[in-house]
Design brief:
By secondary structure, the chain is of the alpha/beta class. It is about 35% helix and about 20% strand. It has twelve helices and 13 strands. The strands form two sheets. The chain has a seven-stranded mixed beta sheet. Strands 10-9-8-11-12-13 form a six-stranded mixed beta sheet. β8 (about 220-225), α10 and β9 form a beta-alpha-beta unit. It is globular and about 65 Å long. It starts with 8 loop residues before the first strand and ends with a strand.
Length: about 325
């Protein structure tokens, strides 16, 4: 989009500035919006300017008056977190330059349902989104989608590009209609795809629990990898405790010595794997399956196997 030293890039939910630091390196002026104090401070430590507020129409209008309007606005994996999605999107319309561009990334709703990704459903999310619905929300708030990309992140995500409806200069990509047609063909406008989702989730729960009970009966040791939200959702849905999953390894040292909420499965350092040599390691963050199996490939030396529960039970 031809950004340069005279442009302004704004990231909403900038976190610790991980993305904006690359704009800074290329001398593109940038601004982050981040309401969480600790992560806002981490971004400031990188020399980034951060507005420590929740974003919405009022903040967008104020920043537009205080600064130049934005040439690019970015919102990655935050759209599902906002309780008033219309007010949030109006903030983009308020702050964006008439010829500017905004991008939104979010997990794909058809992927979530078709691939049975129920363990990505968390209380902190207010919505699960399709391009069909996002297009309508943006349109209602003065923005028009002109392009869309498919991303592999989070089990399949969309990156949606939009511009002001009246003044936008970007051409409409054929990818938009293609994506809308795919969603319609997947059945997201009907009822059946949603009504079958519960039974699909329960099959995962039942198969996973049956595997754990059989492993215990055979005297096998089952461990887990990844003390993250996906694993917590699955374990609590299935009612699994530490008698069935002995411990969970996590690469974050600050989690070691603590417990998974609800299931109370202990979180340990990776060296516990070589100490106990479990028969099975359940990979809870299935979206990182390839990376984790390579990292832990050494468990195969004692006959250890990897287990994936979602979208269906696999033992490798």
């Amino acid at each position: 989009f031809g950004l340069n030293e005279n442009s302004l890039a704004v990231e909403v939910a900038a976190n610790d500035g991980y993305l904006l630091q690359y704009f800074q390196e290329r001398s593109v002026p940038c601004l982050g919006i981040e309401p969480t104090h600790s992560t806002a401070e981490a971004a400031r430590a990188k020399g980034l300017e951060i507005v420590e507020e929740f974003f919405g129409e009022a903040v967008g209008r104020r920043l537009s008056n205080d600064n130049q309007p934005a040439d690019l606005m970015i919102a990655n994996n935050v759209l599902a977190h906002v309780p008033d999605i219309n007010d949030f999107v109006k903030g983009f319309s308020a702050l964006l330059k008439p010829t500017g561009v905004c991008t939104f990334e979010f997990p794909s709703l058809p992927n979530l349902i078709q691939q049975n990704q129920f363990d990505t459903i968390y209380h902190e999310h207010f919505s699960y989104l399709s391009l069909t619905v996002v297009s309508k929300i943006l349109e209602a708030n003065g923005l028009a989608v002109f392009d869309v990309e498919n991303l592999p992140t989070h089990g399949g995500s969309l990156r949606v590009f939009a511009q002001p409806t009246q003044a936008g200069v970007q051409p409409l990509s054929k990818a938009v209609q293609t994506a809308l047609d795919l969603e319609a063909n997947a059945g997201i406008l009907g009822d059946a795809i949603y009504s079958d989702f519960q039974s699909s989730a329960e099959k995962v729960k039942n198969d996973f629990t049956a595997f754990l009970l059989e492993a215990k009966e055979q005297g096998k040791v089952v461990a887990g990898y990844g003390a993250a939200a996906k694993g917590n959702t699955l374990l609590n849905f299935a009612g699994v405790k530490s008698d069935l999953v002995s411990f969970v390894v996590d690469s974050n040292p600050s989690k070691a010595g603590k417990y998974l909420p609800g299931s109370r499965v202990p979180i340990v350092h990776e060296d516990r794997l070589t100490e106990t040599r479990p028969d099975y390691v359940v990979i809870f963050p299935w979206n990182l399956r390839e990376e984790i199996t390579k990292q832990l490939d050494y468990i195969r030396a004692w006959g250890g196997k990897f287990v994936i529960a979602v979208p269906h039970l696999e033992i490798d």
